[in-house]
Amino acid sequence: MHLRKLNYFEHAKEPNSWSLQGLILDNINLIVGKNATGKTNTIIRIAWLGNMLAGTMPQLLSSGNYDVEFSDDSDIYRYKLSLSLQKVEYEELVINDEVKLKRESNGKGEIYSSQFNTNMNFQIQLNHLAATSKRDSIQHPFLEKLAKWAEGLRMYAFSKLGREANPRNVNSAINLYTNGEREFGQSFKESIMGSMKEIGYELTALGTTALGLNSMLYVNEKNSDANILQNQMSQGMVRALSLVIQITYNAFKDLPTTILIDDIGEGLDFDRSSSIIKLISRVADTGKCQLIMSTNDRYVMNNIPLKHWQVIQRTGGECKTYNYHNSEEIFEKFAYTGLNNFDFLAMDFINSGIDE
Length: 356
What we know:
There is one protein chain. This protein is an alpha/beta fold. The chain has helices at 39-54, 130-133, 142-151, 173-184, 186-199, 235-253, 270-285, 298-303, 328-335, 341-346, 349-352, and strands at 2-10, 18-24, 28-32, 63-72, 75-84, 87-95, 98-103, 108-113, 118-123, 153-157, 203-211, 214-221, 228-229, 257-262, 289-294, 309-315, 318-322.
């Protein structure tokens, strides 16, 4: 299951209101925009939705309104969620135009039972999602797909990769590597080393070593006798290695995954930035992984085709997204200029157009 559309707003009619409209996603997506337009906010709001649906968020948002669409083969899931003061005001799930779940602010609602082929009444706590509280693979198997999407979602701040340990973050690369090596053996290690070589890091050794009470990754590069510990690696290397371990582990586990990466390419030179983009894009092209990235990096923009771009423009607290789905003509016109992709953003081509 992949996320296809997202409209969102919070704190309506208040000074800190913020909204996002028009996000229409494919398997590979690059969110671009000038500084402070909402790129990171967009990534975070998607992550919040995933955490709530996975049941890993300790409390609901004080304000948040989602209208999202997922696709699963031939099925279309539309999920609406309205939150206020950390309570659910409204929640609805529609699959192929059939209402499967609907609940109101008092916690009462109806949900379709696959076992009995009828709607069933329920009432749950006001600060609980019905999509998580009513999860039941026999009675309501359609909720499993939402839950699996949420559980497979991972968000990474590229600038922090490899520096922290969080079980739901690639920064716990040591744990994922240890699990992968135990489950899949030498082939798992060789796949990681092959991907690192593709990016430009030719490794002759990869493993873990004890450091005090903790374990740490280490590598050995070609033409060097010394092992490089995880905390000694360059920013570019540790970020690339952490991301490769995550992607490789998911591939070996055959897990459908949505990967959110904020500031992709930061800390990498042109060649390595280009290579890592090609690597993860190839994984996303298989269809099992959806890739949603944000960037300010010129190298990254020039290596991701415009057909994958999501251009955010902000006016006050309102953000609008332009992409091939809703603005195909302006994107096609730019192709005739012969300019680099980065110029599409730098020249404000969405507004200035071909005449300028």
